[in-house]
Structure formats: structure tokens, C-alpha cells
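Let's practice the habit of predicting before peeking. Look at the sequence and jot down your guess about where helices and strands might fall. Then scroll down.
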Amino acid sequence: MKKLPEPREVETVMARITGKVQGVGFRAAAVRQAHALAVTGWVRNNADGSVEVLLQGSHDRIDRMLSWLLVGPPAARVANVESSDIVTERHFDRFEQI
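Done guessing? Here is the structure:
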């Protein structure tokens, strides 16, 4: 008899990044970084000049992505990253720019 695989621990985190984060390739770089870390979710610009991301994955991968968001791509000047855990039934299968 086959043993069932262990359930995956998946976290979902919403983050808002402020500073000089629009017009500097932040979203495209975030997509590349998320793909490299195997994090799913999305990234988008907000009307107030901030960038918002929804991240889904293991605790370690989310933590590494949040660390990257604190710096962003070379042209960005991140002032602050606010993040919070959220509860959702939805599971994303990729990370994309919306």
C-alpha cells in the first residue's frame, strides 16, 4: 500500500511596497524573482504609487521573497514593505503581473 504524501504547508501573504517602485521595472523583476523562488500569486501597481503583491508558498520561500521586496530591482528605492498573512481558499498555480 502506498503512503499518502504529507500535506503541503502553504502560506498566503499580502504586501504593499512604497517608495520609488513604479516606472522602474519593479513588477517584471518581482515576477522573475517569484518564478526563481517558486512562489505563486500576483503583483500590481496601485493608483497611489505603491505596488501590491499577493504571495503564496512555503514559509521559507515567502520569507525570501519578502526579503527581496525590501530591496527590489536596482532602479527601485523601497521606503517600506507592509505585509500581513491572509486566509484564502484560493490556490494560485503561477505568479503573474496584473
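How did you do? Confidence is low (pLDDT under 50) at residues 1-7.
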